[in-house]
Amino acid sequence: MARPRDIRRLAFAALFQIDAGEGDSIETVRAWISEPDQDDSGVKYDARDRRKALATAEGAWRGRRDADAAFRELAPDWPTHRMPAADRAILRLAHYEMTQTSTEPKAIVNEAIELAKSFGTERSPGFVNALLDSILKDVLSKRAARPAAHAPDAPVEEGTA
Q1: Is 150 within a domain?
Q2: Which of 25, 52, 76, 89 has the highest CB neighbour number within 10 Å of its CB?
Protein backbone atom coordinates (compact mmCIF):
# COMPACT_ATOMS: atom_id res chain seq x y z
CA MET A 1 0.00 0.00 0.00
CA ALA A 2 1.32 3.42 -0.98
CA ARG A 3 1.65 6.35 1.40
CA PRO A 4 -1.08 9.04 1.33
CA ARG A 5 1.49 11.42 -0.17
CA ASP A 6 2.05 9.02 -3.07
CA ILE A 7 -1.68 8.52 -3.62
CA ARG A 8 -2.12 12.30 -3.69
CA ARG A 9 0.69 12.60 -6.24
CA LEU A 10 -1.06 10.03 -8.42
CA ALA A 11 -4.36 11.88 -7.99
CA PHE A 12 -2.61 15.09 -9.08
CA ALA A 13 -1.26 13.36 -12.21
CA ALA A 14 -4.72 12.01 -13.04
CA LEU A 15 -6.39 15.39 -12.49
CA PHE A 16 -3.74 17.11 -14.58
CA GLN A 17 -4.48 14.69 -17.44
CA ILE A 18 -8.25 15.06 -17.07
CA ASP A 19 -7.88 18.84 -17.18
CA ALA A 20 -5.60 18.67 -20.22
CA GLY A 21 -8.31 16.73 -22.02
CA GLU A 22 -10.97 19.14 -20.74
CA GLY A 23 -12.82 16.26 -19.14
CA ASP A 24 -13.03 14.20 -22.32
CA SER A 25 -10.15 12.04 -21.14
CA ILE A 26 -11.66 10.64 -17.94
CA GLU A 27 -12.05 7.17 -19.47
CA THR A 28 -8.48 7.30 -20.77
CA VAL A 29 -7.23 8.33 -17.32
CA ARG A 30 -9.26 5.53 -15.72
CA ALA A 31 -7.55 3.03 -18.01
CA TRP A 32 -4.11 4.59 -17.40
CA ILE A 33 -4.46 4.65 -13.63
CA SER A 34 -5.54 1.01 -13.60
CA GLU A 35 -2.27 -0.12 -15.16
CA PRO A 36 0.20 -1.43 -12.57
CA ASP A 37 3.21 0.48 -13.92
CA GLN A 38 1.61 3.87 -14.67
CA ASP A 39 4.00 5.79 -12.41
CA ASP A 40 7.75 6.09 -12.96
CA SER A 41 8.50 7.07 -9.34
CA GLY A 42 9.07 3.49 -8.23
CA VAL A 43 6.03 3.57 -5.93
CA LYS A 44 4.00 0.38 -5.93
CA TYR A 45 0.28 1.13 -5.97
CA ASP A 46 -2.24 -1.57 -5.23
CA ALA A 47 -5.75 -1.51 -6.69
CA ARG A 48 -7.11 0.28 -3.60
CA ASP A 49 -4.49 3.05 -3.93
CA ARG A 50 -5.36 3.55 -7.59
CA ARG A 51 -9.09 3.69 -6.80
CA LYS A 52 -8.46 6.30 -4.07
CA ALA A 53 -6.33 8.41 -6.40
CA LEU A 54 -8.91 8.24 -9.18
CA ALA A 55 -11.80 9.03 -6.81
CA THR A 56 -9.91 12.04 -5.51
CA ALA A 57 -9.06 13.29 -9.01
CA GLU A 58 -12.62 12.81 -10.25
CA GLY A 59 -14.01 14.54 -7.16
CA ALA A 60 -11.69 17.48 -7.73
CA TRP A 61 -12.71 17.62 -11.39
CA ARG A 62 -16.43 17.61 -10.49
CA GLY A 63 -15.79 20.33 -7.87
CA ARG A 64 -13.69 22.53 -10.14
CA ARG A 65 -16.37 25.21 -10.58
CA ASP A 66 -16.60 25.77 -6.82
CA ALA A 67 -12.82 25.76 -6.51
CA ASP A 68 -12.40 28.13 -9.44
CA ALA A 69 -14.98 30.51 -7.98
CA ALA A 70 -13.16 30.53 -4.64
CA PHE A 71 -9.82 31.21 -6.33
CA ARG A 72 -11.32 33.90 -8.57
CA GLU A 73 -12.57 35.69 -5.46
CA LEU A 74 -9.17 35.46 -3.77
CA ALA A 75 -7.03 36.24 -6.83
CA PRO A 76 -9.16 38.09 -9.38
CA ASP A 77 -6.10 38.88 -11.51
CA TRP A 78 -5.28 35.16 -11.79
CA PRO A 79 -8.39 33.26 -12.87
CA THR A 80 -7.76 29.55 -13.28
CA HIS A 81 -7.61 29.72 -17.07
CA ARG A 82 -4.54 31.99 -16.69
CA MET A 83 -2.79 29.78 -14.13
CA PRO A 84 -0.14 27.29 -15.13
CA ALA A 85 -1.85 23.92 -15.60
CA ALA A 86 0.08 22.30 -12.74
CA ASP A 87 -0.89 25.07 -10.31
CA ARG A 88 -4.53 24.80 -11.36
CA ALA A 89 -4.57 21.03 -10.80
CA ILE A 90 -2.78 21.32 -7.44
CA LEU A 91 -5.16 24.01 -6.24
CA ARG A 92 -8.29 22.19 -7.39
CA LEU A 93 -7.11 18.98 -5.78
CA ALA A 94 -6.34 20.73 -2.50
CA HIS A 95 -9.64 22.62 -2.54
CA TYR A 96 -11.54 19.39 -3.03
CA GLU A 97 -9.70 17.62 -0.24
CA MET A 98 -10.05 20.57 2.13
CA THR A 99 -13.77 21.07 1.52
CA GLN A 100 -15.03 17.56 0.78
CA THR A 101 -12.95 15.19 2.91
CA SER A 102 -12.03 14.79 6.54
CA THR A 103 -8.30 14.90 5.81
CA GLU A 104 -6.45 17.39 8.01
CA PRO A 105 -6.57 20.68 6.03
CA LYS A 106 -3.16 21.90 7.22
CA ALA A 107 -1.61 18.69 5.93
CA ILE A 108 -3.32 19.22 2.59
CA VAL A 109 -1.83 22.71 2.30
CA ASN A 110 1.64 21.36 3.07
CA GLU A 111 1.23 18.57 0.53
CA ALA A 112 0.00 21.04 -2.11
CA ILE A 113 3.07 23.20 -1.56
CA GLU A 114 5.29 20.13 -1.98
CA LEU A 115 3.51 19.26 -5.23
CA ALA A 116 3.99 22.86 -6.39
CA LYS A 117 7.72 22.62 -5.63
CA SER A 118 7.97 19.44 -7.69
CA PHE A 119 5.67 20.24 -10.61
CA GLY A 120 5.10 24.00 -10.69
CA THR A 121 7.14 27.04 -11.58
CA GLU A 122 9.54 28.87 -9.29
CA ARG A 123 6.64 31.02 -8.06
CA SER A 124 4.14 28.19 -7.69
CA PRO A 125 4.80 27.27 -4.04
CA GLY A 126 4.20 30.82 -2.82
CA PHE A 127 1.14 31.28 -5.02
CA VAL A 128 -0.37 27.96 -3.93
CA ASN A 129 0.38 28.72 -0.28
CA ALA A 130 -1.21 32.18 -0.44
CA LEU A 131 -4.44 30.98 -2.01
CA LEU A 132 -4.78 27.88 0.14
CA ASP A 133 -4.04 29.78 3.34
CA SER A 134 -7.19 31.82 2.77
CA ILE A 135 -9.19 28.68 1.97
CA LEU A 136 -7.72 27.01 5.07
CA LYS A 137 -9.00 29.74 7.37
CA ASP A 138 -12.51 29.40 5.93
CA VAL A 139 -12.46 25.60 6.12
CA LEU A 140 -11.22 25.57 9.71
CA SER A 141 -13.91 27.99 10.84
CA LYS A 142 -16.62 25.92 9.12
CA ARG A 143 -15.29 22.67 10.58
CA ALA A 144 -15.23 24.17 14.06
CA ALA A 145 -18.90 25.09 13.70
CA ARG A 146 -19.94 21.66 12.35
CA PRO A 147 -20.63 18.63 14.54
CA ALA A 148 -17.99 15.91 14.10
CA ALA A 149 -20.63 13.34 13.11
CA HIS A 150 -21.17 15.19 9.81
CA ALA A 151 -17.56 15.12 8.63
CA PRO A 152 -17.35 13.87 5.03
CA ASP A 153 -15.37 10.78 4.02
CA ALA A 154 -11.78 11.11 2.84
CA PRO A 155 -10.73 9.46 -0.45
CA VAL A 156 -7.08 9.95 0.52
CA GLU A 157 -6.01 8.64 3.92
CA GLU A 158 -5.29 10.94 6.81
CA GLY A 159 -1.80 12.31 7.30
CA THR A 160 1.10 12.99 5.01
CA ALA A 161 3.56 10.20 5.73
Answers
A1: no
A2: 89
